[in-house]
Design a protein that fits this description.
elongated, Rossmann fold, binds glutamine, 365 residues, seven-stranded mixed sheet
Length: 365
Amino acid sequence: MWKPETDFATMRCLTHPLLKRLLGLSPQCVPGGLSPSKVPVVRPKRSSLRQSCSARPELVTAADVVSYWQKVFETNGIPEARESSEYIVSFVLGAKTFQSLNSKSLRTPLTAAQQEQIQQLSHKRLERMPVQYVLGEWDFQDLTLKMRPPVFIPRPETEDLVSLVVEEESRKCEKNSGLCFPVSVPHPVILEIGCGSGAVALSLLSKLPKSRVIAMDKEEAAVDLTRENAHRLRLQERIHILHRDVSYNSAEQLLLWGPIDFIVSNPPYVFHEDMASLDAEILRYEDLDALDGGDDGMRVIKTILALAPSLLKDSGSVFLEVDPRHPDMVENWLQAHRNLPLVLRAVHKDFCGKPRFLHVQKQSR
Ligand code: GLN
């Protein structure tokens, strides 16, 4: 039987998106399992940081500090100890990854202020706070986004959801430019349901410069963070951010922006019974409503599908991220709702080889 602990998508994955792409790696994920109780801080047995690093106690390098906190994390059972320590130290030194630090910055002794900041951030990690919240920012595709608890942290696999929409849009443009002259300039209207930090909506805006996005979320913290990220990235002109839940009655308000080309969503899709097995990082810090999809994980998926025909243009598409059990369940659901003019066009796998993304299209009748 499928177990959440063995599914990459339900684990904290600290492999930086850029590195992952460069090295062609699957993310290194460590299953959780510790209870969300407070973890007492245990120092590594050998010695303190200063004693172990140098004869002159103040001369501590980045490499020394990374090893030190890695050991503290390991001793305290913190998952992804090395990666956590590297991200914290690199962040304080102004770099994205430890690998990108040059040999000079690796050898230069850290200032007292840098050591102090590393210590403060590491203590948050010792409380099982996800690194993304510890640093307060994280990369998604080519964007650096602010991150703040409890707003859902974008997972690396969701980058592929964005790519699927972009590919479909370029496919449509090629098809149109072959048929019509003069070439029509497409201005796709995209609706994102459950925007969280704004990662998907803002990536789409930056990849599709003519597009406009309506981004909605039922959580005020998410809507605020999406707005903040949109302004920081200067993408606020083409986004409408709505604080409201999706329901069968949402169509009228959403159609104020005209019929929609694409609906995209990474909805809450974890089966309710699997929620308790999620990592302590998730259970303690993230908004669980952004993950809990009800008994069959389909609560929001079904609402989106039922709403889609009244929102979409003819041949418009829905792109959804789902659990690997959902493609069959959605196919059956569509069979049982033949009155809806929707067809499951494609199921795409994530980088771990699991069926993860659905392309559902509206058929004209
Ligand atoms: N893939 C998510 C996870 O890691 C689940 C996301 C969701 O429910 N949208 O936990």
